[in-house]
Amino acid sequence: MSQEKIYTAALVVIGDEILSGRTQDKNVSQIALWLNIQGIRLKEVRVVADDMDAIKEAVNILRARNDYLFTTGGIGPTHDDITVDAISEALGVDVVVHPEASRVLHKYYEKRGGVTEARMRMARVPDGADLIANKMSGAPGIRVENIFIMAGVPHITAGMLDALTGQLEGGKPLLSHQVGAWVAESEISEMLRETEKRHEGAQIGSYPFFREGRVGANFVVRSTDAHVMNACVKALRDGLDELGYPPIDGGI
Amino acid sequence: MSQEKIYTAALVVIGDEILSGRTQDKNVSQIALWLNIQGIRLKEVRVVADDMDAIKEAVNILRARNDYLFTTGGIGPTHDDITVDAISEALGVDVVVHPEASRVLHKYYEKRGGVTEARMRMARVPDGADLIANKMSGAPGIRVENIFIMAGVPHITAGMLDALTGQLEGGKPLLSHQVGAWVAESEISEMLRETEKRHEGAQIGSYPFFREGRVGANFVVRSTDAHVMNACVKALRDGLDELGYPPIDGGI
Fold it and tell me: What ipTM was estimated for this complex?
């Protein structure tokens, strides 16, 4: 099997509200699942404050070592929305008004009280940027170099991801299959390790839980190769059966 | 007002299951809220894969520039649980069996089939470490230098946090108060900016939403100084009122 390129992405979640515990992030899992379908692997995530230096540091390191970098948060009209300024500084480019973004915002606010200086902040982009359509509200997302600047509000981010579907070059999607069993993972850890070792190109994750007064675990087999994944899943099911723990396909 | 030390913490969330989107993280917000009460500010979070180098890099950078570093995940009995090994390497110390952890695990598994090699993996710690009590299951958390190694399963992490409550030196807790209004944040962004500027030591976060067919926003005022926070909240309420948007105390 030839070595295929694995496409990777990183995500920077920007916002004091995540770090203070006020808001439960939803964008990590949403973007991770979307990336899987595009054949791109989410490799690392950083959550940083609404702080120029913190954003710049994360953006510059992560954009250099991944094929794609996504950011969420900080692109609204208020004083704590500094993502565009920070990314422009990180890239060493000016902040400019994007004519199409300006047009979109004028149109959107035509029947909503008109544009204001604050609203026009949302037309500002790093020089050289393209827009990402936002069907949900006036303010577009922004694409510059390999960076995708998205909203913080999850359903707006979802709309932006929808606009990007199929637009990014990826590799083979990471396939996964889950098998569960009513077993303490420590009972079968040696079998898991051996099964993974015998199936190069597959990884087995083990996720224990305590439910209905009993311990159990779900095992997720991941591979970009369907053949390898299926062989590993079969070996895992057989292994559980032999040890006296009937496998439950799809997980518990 | 004298400059008071602000205590900071970072968190490394370890686990392929978060990066694949399979599992929705709950530990960031749980640990953030707990830290606030201890007078410690969560400054940055990284989510990394079950990968030695990725864990080591994050641990070494974040432990150096924060008062405390927390990790979640990767301390179970299976092959993908490599947190103790990675942190030991990051610190340049050996992995050793902790006698008390060994005793706890022997006792816990006495009526659960006895210890096995896999289960005894959970007694392994970086040399020099202390234990963090875990009332929920046999495996303890681990404290070494300024690093706190916690479980990935949120209710087990909660028990470990409980055991640490009041044990960590912190500063003044970060206070916060929320005010909401049925207003598009772009209508009042100038007032927000000015209000924040006039109250040094307070930050105002603006969090828009779309609900019941209307746009609104919640504003969170944060400060370590109750006097400053209350003055800023009052100015914010007055500002909203003057612009024709009745403030709703506590948020919407």
Answer: 0.91
